[in-house]
Amino acid sequence: MELVEYNAAARLINSYGIKSIESKYVKSAGEAVAFSKGRKIVLKAISNKALHKSKAGLIKIDLLSVQEIEGAFRDLQKRAKKFAPYKIIAQKMADKGIEIIVGGREDAQFGKLLLLGLGGIYVETFRDFALRVCPITQFDAKQMISQLRSKKVVTYSGKSEKILEGLLLKASRLLAENKLSELDLNPVIIREDGYDVVDIRILK
Amino acid sequence: MAARKNMDLRPMLKPKSVAIIGASNTPGKVGHIILNNYIEEGYQGRLYPINKDGGTILGLYAYKSVLDVREKIDLAVIAVPAMVVPLVLEECGKARVKSVVVISGGFAEVGNVELQKKIVAIAQKYSMPMLGPNCLGVMDPRSRIDTMFLPTYKLSKPKVGGVSFVSQSGAVGSTVLDLIAKEGFGLSKFISYGNAAHVDEVDILEYLMNDDETEVVIIYIEGAKRGREFFEIGKKLSKKKPVIVIKGGMTEAGAAAAHSHTASLAGSHEAYEAVFRQCGFAIAKDLDDLLYFGKAFATEPAPKGNRVAVITNGGGTGVLTTDAIYSAGLRMAEFGPQAQRALRKIMPMTVNVRNPLDLVGDADKKRYEDALGVIAQDKNIDMLIVIALFQTPGADESLAERLVEFKSASEKPMVVISAGSQYTQERVAFMENAGLPVYDSPAAAANSLAELLKYAKYKSGIAD
What we know:
The complex is a heterodimer of chains A (204) and B (464). With 204 residues, chain A is of the alpha+beta class.
């Protein structure tokens, strides 16, 4: 299995109407500062060898000042050494919201599966997720959401529920129509006014 | 999805003539039991015992080969040693037998994959649907066929009804059949398909979907051979009739080498559960659930909503039932003002008019009757749980009879909770045989009603 390069993965999800958060590979702290333009950013080191970026300390968030960005860049370079080769990517910092995971995989028995779960660091602790075979219907999307124990956390309003339904239907189409073995949009930050796909991981 | 060609199971389940290959005069042998069962069940079609030595078996002329039978054979039941099966099957093909059930074991399940491939090739060559091998075969109480090699005196056979039961495992199959008979709900078809070498679960579900005698389908499955087709037929099937499923092997280890969070969460077990949910199946976690849900679906109409009324002659059991109703995702109905007034008028002062309606310990048939009469008319109630504790002085067989009568007139789902030993069990058996589901625990009753509602919503496309 092969990890799809970040920009290519972002283009793929974009082509199904799923927005990815603004991001850019940066080769130096200076480039990261230039990307920031005075906004809060995130820096991440990406490597085939690290599945858990946060556990490996490969994510630096909430970076605003030049000093913060430069310090974080240097620290990432140090930590990422053992995962070489690696690249560093700068992303706009997402607004606050609820972290969820939307994912999928190819199942030998049933074909493509779509997953929705409470995201972030809780995924594996609570194992609160819903699964369906692709392609899903709107009814399936609604049922996936209502099946979550954390439903009231994930969609605390009718608005965010609608947004999530739409996202699930798009992800289902993406999975059904493409040859890929695993997909993680994790986390997706969902809010009243929309969502941000903060990390993408596609394995072909 | 079109039916697979040459997979028509009708000749297997509604045969006008049956050959028992491997029929034997020796009591206890599989070929003896099967033939004897056909005779005892009163099978009305033509019966041909086949035995390589010929002679007379159980009073019937025995042929040495199916090729010697001049009449058309709809079904051949094969119970000979595995090594002989290819030869016998070839003869069936030449004799243009319309369908076969291979009871014999000794194929892929013990590693004899080649031998199994060989018999599948023969079945395909002659376009002969083959059930098994390594199975109990089929049972249809309407056509009085029963290919099972289980002595009739050891297994209570269910009465004729609308529930069809499909089981990959023969052992689970026969146990559940026996229990279905005990629970008093009727059977349409039993199909134990063993190794699924030729006819598989998808073919069977497709047949049952179009079978007018089948109203409810129960499936015991360990693994679907054609996953995607299973999913497609499952969705279509449950739009027509309710399906209850239990899966063996739910605890198998998930994907070993996952590269993503999704893959590490969603293993094979989770995939099956997803398919069942998406198909709108009621998922039974054990055999108890299977029977609980089964009898509710077998007799109850679709509920219109989630509001339950509880009538009881025991306060504590009423409270426990209230808890079970909320745990199952249902809720307690609030009696309408008219019903409240009417109840206040006819109930003794010892009875509090609220839900659960506690008729108190001295309630008799009459008091239940009065309460039920009012509650049945109340539009604020979607489902009914009647608790009848037969340990109390007023509750006797006349109450059981009255509940059964009331049930047959009720348009709302209605179930009973009765727990106890011998005296109670006799009343329970009476009610169940009359088509009134009885549960021994509040949770079983509430969960079963919740499954009825879930299915009704699925069928009409209402999301939770």
